[in-house]
Amino acid sequence: MCQLLGMNCNVPTDICFSFTGFQRRGGGTDVHADGWGIAFFEGKGVRLFLDPLPSAQSPIAELVRKYPIRSLNVIAHIRKATQGVVTLENTHPFMRELWGRYWVFAHNGNLPQLQPQLDGGFVPVGDTDSEHIFCWLLQSLRKRFGNAPPGRDALFAALHELIYPLSGMGIFNFMLSNGDCLFAHCSTELSYIARRAPFNMAHLMDEDVQVDFSQVTTPDDRVAIIATLPLTDNEAWITMPPGSLWMFHEGEAAAHLATTPSPVKSLSGS
Predict the structure, then answer these.
(1) CB of 248 within 8 A of CB of 184?
(2) pLDDT at position 264 over 80
(3) pLDDT one-digit tens code per residue, 27-86
(4) Which of 2, 9, 135, 181 does the annotation list as catalytic?
(5) Known catalytic residue at 186
(6) Distances in Å between the alpha carbon of 52 and those of 30, 36, 56, 58, 239?
(7) 263 in a domain, yes or no?
(8) Which residues constitute the domain of residue 160?
(9) How many whole angstroms separate alpha carbon 52 and alpha carbon 27?
(10) How many distinct structural domains can be found in the chain?
């Protein structure tokens, strides 16, 4: 399976430290060698880097690791292909526009039974189930709210209702962001850590690198890091319960709800 990495902050922050460990898992310390990608929200724009090469061997990943791009929301993905060939168009994260904002989505899992109907408003470019699901989610949100974008609480409730019937169909860990907040669904495994004052030293699991966050932060900073598996070996990561949807805003877990498996049923995109 793939692995996910996300960051949500209350002030623009770079993800260089966390990405250094995450990059090594893409064909270095782990087997996720079928491509990688990362998206940084900056104002209304998004910097999106994609490469079908393993991240541990990618010159683009080296650039990202050394380039301190500051962002409030970041989503990254390293791929172990289950559906779709290893090509650039099948590399996560995927990006689309809705309500005048970019949306970014990355998925870890496999939903072989899911074949949602699409109306043509959002169309997959590649042939992964992940991109198909992303298009269906955005289509469903637009049908539900029309041309008036909802507030984040209403959006969180709608996402919870939409993914509720998917929970019993397979593995469905994902991250989704519109630049305002970051949503994370734990189907089988996700963990997070919310760093805030007093900041301490952190040491990566996958590479002998450490940083003293007290030297590079202010007392008001808050940074939430979400990952498939913890990235550091000396911090208290919180394991998300399987079957839970989370919303992160301004560097902390703002809300979470359980997603309970339900019988498979047809999805019409409404």
Answers:
(1) yes
(2) no
(3) 888 777 789 999 999 999 999 999 999 998 999 999 999 999 999 999 999 987 666 678
(4) 2
(5) no
(6) 16, 6, 11, 9, 30
(7) no
(8) 3-258
(9) 12
(10) 1
